[in-house]
Amino acid sequence: MAQNVRDVSTNEEVTSTRRVIAASSVGTLIEWYDFYIFGTLAKIISEQFFPKDNPTAALLATLATFAAGFVVRPFGALFFGRLGDLIGRKYTFLVTLVIMGGSTFAIGLVPGYKTIGFVAPAIVFFLRLLQGLALGGEYGGAATYVAEHSPAGKRGFWTSFIQTTATLGLFLALGVILIVRQSLGVETFSDWGWRIPFILSVFLVAISVFIRMRMSESPLFVKMKKEGKTSANPLAESFKQKGNLKMVLIALLGATAGQGVVWYTGQFYALSFLQNACNVEFVQSNFIISIALLIGTPFFIVFGSLSDKIGRKYIMMAGMLIAVIAYRPIYTIMYSDANLKNKVEIVEKKVVTVKNAVKGADSLITTVTTKAFTDGTTYKETVKAKFPVDPALKAALPKDKLKPETKKEVTLPQDLYYKMIGLVLIQVIFVTMVYGPIAAFLVEIFPTRIRYTSMSLPYHIGNGVFGGLVPLISTRLVEATRPGPGLPPADPLAGLWYPILIAGVSFVIGSLYISNKTNNMDVE
Amino acid sequence: MSAIKRIFGLVWALMGVGIVPLVIKQAMKEIAAKPSEENWIFWSIVIVVLMPIIAFSLITFGVFALKGEYDTLEDS
User: Fold this and answer.
1) ipTM for the assembly
2) Which of B61, B69, B75 is nearest residue A253 as measured by Cβ atoms?
3) Residue A95 vs residues A5, A37, A89, A91, A98: alpha-carbon distances, Å
């Protein structure tokens, strides 16, 4: 009888924990989805909202907006972290979800630069800042909430489900974009179809809010509040008391900074590298990343669970070290496999078509060249030259305005396509090693009364600032090796030095100073 | 182990101090060579956001390590 009662009680606990994990994870996944559709559609957004005269400036402007989204995350962490430690985890991360959903939906409705001028990028910039703030408050709340429901010895396993959400959110973003793009066609998607993934967010958020409304508050927080032990000033307690500040610093420098750059390199930078350095065709490059993410995602749970047995530190440090050593060789293979200079062209299969059209007062000449290679690779180059029909007007235009727009697309054969998936998958495994155990690690080094605030800040500085700036800094490092305008960069892999340096320093600090004895401890 | 942690503490603190003039010098050099909008945006983000975080955290962490604040952490 006693055994039966215990079994029923255990079953109820498992169901309750599963419900907590599911409700927290779905909301966090949607927040990541909201956040990443902006980054994934960076190129289209730059065309829609920033002056087109200078495409590099437009792209950099978007990247800056992208970075702004990341840079404000620590402020969101402080603001919502404080609220979460004062009024509770549940209501705080409910608010962040609503703010995120509302901003994403609104981005989908903002008229373009052509319609309302500079007000358009200003509104988009503001909404992006709101997204960053909301995300800054969300993750710490979800991780804390799940960890405070989890038993000691299983915290790595349970929180690893929250850790899958960032990757699954990116996967969902890529999937929705691909489906919408394929359904509407490239032209329509670039024109207005890109708004659909943003607008769709409002429905996802509504479902998630409904689920979260039915959840109860964290048991540890409720107990602490009943006992009157909540912190009166979580910010001051977290960052002015030496004992907590030194843990915040060790978490940032020894774990989250390295984790952040490994996360962004393995997922975002890999996609950007495939599309911009290797010129791999849009749909194929997105499939490469999506498949690698899908295969790699269960490893978050594998490494989260393993960290309950052997400790968080060893897994995270191993992930950083292997990433630092392996990045250059991996990217060298990726670049070499897509490089047309390493392939033999089947000259008789080369086709060149030229179309001349007049659009209003402009003449548009489109030259499409397709090439085939012996290994099965195909290459398509589209050059669009637009200039006024009137020769006098044409002569009056500056040279850079007459520069044709060139689009290069490399489609890889089956064997290289699978190889690319494998190479990206290896990087995703590094991501799962550094990211899978990190929520449990962060939760365990801070006390309940200031946990939401203390863990959110190093996480969002590491992941948001150090990691979020990977695209901007890496693009810059590659550009610095370009010998002149219009010439290819001397070192297309130069962008990797930033994540290698940050992850390297983080590895040394983490290995020296982080304790491996935090797993299985009681959080209180 | 504690001695290594303290010696490295000095390294982190010096790195934190050294990064400030290094970044500012590089920014001035690049902006002077090409005072474009892209250059301003990029270096503003680096100088206003990234550099202070790196410098402050490395210096504070280094000083703590040098003073032996991390000596007591077990199994590290």
Assistant:
1) 0.94
2) B61
3) 38, 21, 10, 6, 5
